[in-house]
Amino acid sequence: MTPAYQAIPEYLSNTRYANPTDSAPFNLAYNTDMRVFEWRKHNPKNAEAGQAFMAAQRMGQRSVWDGQTSVKEFEMSPEDLQNGRVMMCDVGGGLGHQCVEFRKYRPDLQGRIITEDLELVQNMISNREELSSMDISLQTHNFMEEQPIKGAKVYYLRNVIHNWNDEPSKTILSQISKAMAQDSVVILDEVVMPHMGASWKQTSMDLAMMTMLAAKERKQDEFEKLLNGAGLTIREIRTYDEDYGDSLIIAELLPARVDEKFEEPAAVVEQSPARVDEKFEEPVAKEESLPAMVDEKSGEPAAVVV
Ligand SMILES: C[S@@+](CC[C@H](N)C(=O)[O-])C[C@H]1O[C@@H](n2cnc3c(N)ncnc32)[C@H](O)[C@@H]1O
Predict the structure, then answer these.
(1) Which residues line ligand 1 (CB under 6 A)?
(2) Lowest-pLDDT range, 117-121, 220-224, 289-293?
(3) How far is the CA of 73 from the centre of ligand 1 (A)?
(4) Which end of the chain is more exposed for a tag (fewer CB within 10 A), N or C?
(5) Hey, is 239 helix, strand or coil?
(6) Which CATH architecture does the domain made up of 34-70+78-294 adopt?
(7) What is the ipTM of this complex?
(8) Residue closest by Cα to atom 26 of ligand 1
(9) Which segments of 57-165 does DSSP mark as H helices, in order?
């Protein structure tokens, strides 16, 4: 990462100090047009170090699976269990470490767990026996493409969306929303930035995302707008680490999307922009959010990774 940080002044000077959205200082430093994840395919040693770091990065910090944060969304009905429904689909789950931690935390919650990531990454998994003994399966998946796991109870994404700017994030979330059942939820496990007075831990994460990936940490209203664009809306936010603002953002299908997918009465369609307005007091124009909702095409400062 260091060469990318060193390239920041030159990169910003070249781009007239605009917020990076396509390329990043990383691209200048490593003289490549590829994004980090693509570049790592050609630099397997870096890829391995990056994945190991992600698995370990929050050690010593407060874990989301520590008994203080409700995980009620994962609870399955007897019918769900009988039908073999997937309880947790960890999208961009890396080496599957969050699934293992979740199982250890709540062994009483039965239901299938699937961890998804790129083939290159899943080839690095060395504890396959441990995963299968915990009923955790691997699924190779590019999250820009159709989500193969349909109707999971929870689609969980930790530190995934902060790696991408808005357009690709919308694609990732749309692929999931298309696969959701009426009662599925998406849980984003991400930093939620405050409007003012961000801590140094938060700003260092934000800087890392900009430097490596032309991406960013987001505020609550930015998450809501992004989710709306993928047919989703925030149901609840549970912050479990105040220093970082690490939070579970629980999102469900927008009522309009439920009607569209499940052919239910359309009586609540008009509520969706109002809900956003109410919650965040932002003028969310109907023209802006509704077409997007239905557009299917489309530790320490150093301890921050992509
Ligand atoms: C910041 S890491 C987070 C990993 C894990 N969720 C965690 O919290 O430790 C982002 C993950 O996204 C994966 N990823 C990047 N591009 C992907 C793609 N197109 N499809 C699926 N996974 C991808 C990376 O391989 C990496 O494991």
Answers:
(1) 37, 54, 92-94, 98, 117-118, 121, 141-144, 158-160, 163, 306
(2) 289-293
(3) 22
(4) N
(5) strand
(6) 3-Layer(aba) Sandwich (3.40)
(7) 0.99
(8) 94
(9) 78-82, 97-105, 119-122, 128-133
